[in-house]
Specification:
Number of strands: 0
Helix content: 40-55%
Oligomer: single chain
Structural class: mainly alpha
Distance between the termini: 77 Å
């Protein structure tokens, strides 16, 4: 029994090349899957794609007139920047994207008629301040204007309103002339931010 066990034990320090090759092939396959997944998701990650659904057309047109699209810095905030977990949290981002995409697809074809105002309220209720603070983290430290500092000073107090309670019309509804309709809770100073 002792001789049998000794014959099958590898010498210390010797690496079986078969396992090295298996590891390399597996690693290469994982990298290829990761790259393929990213490439496949890219067309579905644009704001233009989001705006193709008739349910999102008004919101898409409003976004194109908002401070998240047109601003002094030239920075464009895409739909997925606010409505999905950050891309650097790859698996969380991917699973949320798949879940929300499939849910919206099922609702589009099998759900009740789309109520834009009801859906807007539901979305606003589910946007935590942490999403806004990804880009607007320095509102008090380096505000763009004194008015912005004054308007955001109460945000540090307990029971302060959330970002979307004040900025509740981030996707202004375009009027029939194509100009931006006035947004409730949207101040000129906040629009600059």
């Amino acid at each position: 029994m002792g001789q049998f066990a000794c014959k099958h034990v590898k010498k210390a320090g010797k690496i079986n090349t078969r396992y090295v090759w298996l590891f390399c092939v597996g690693f290469a396959f994982a990298v290829l899957c990761f790259l393929a997944t990213n490439a496949a998701m890219e067309p579905f990650s644009s704001s233009e794609f989001c705006g193709k659904c008739h349910e999102m057309k008004t919101l898409y047109e409003g976004w194109k007139q908002s401070g998240h699209y047109v601003n002094v810095s030239g920075t464009v905030t895409e739909c997925i920047d606010c409505h999905l977990p950050p891309k650097d949290e790859f698996f969380r981002h991917l699973s949320a994207k798949a879940y929300i995409g499939l849910r919206d697809l099922v609702k589009h074809y099998l759900g009740r008629p789309y109520d834009e105002e009801k859906m807007r309220q539901k979305v606003l209720e589910n946007i935590p301040d942490s999403i806004c603070l990804r880009c607007h983290s320095n509102l008090l430290g380096k505000p763009s204007t004194p008015a912005v500092a004054i308007l955001h000073a109460p945000s540090t107090e307990p029971n302060a309103p959330t970002c979307v309670e004040c900025h509740n019309d981030m996707h202004p509804r375009p009027d029939s002339s194509g100009e931006e309709a006035s947004g409730e809770g949207q101040t000129e100073a906040a629009a600059e931010q």
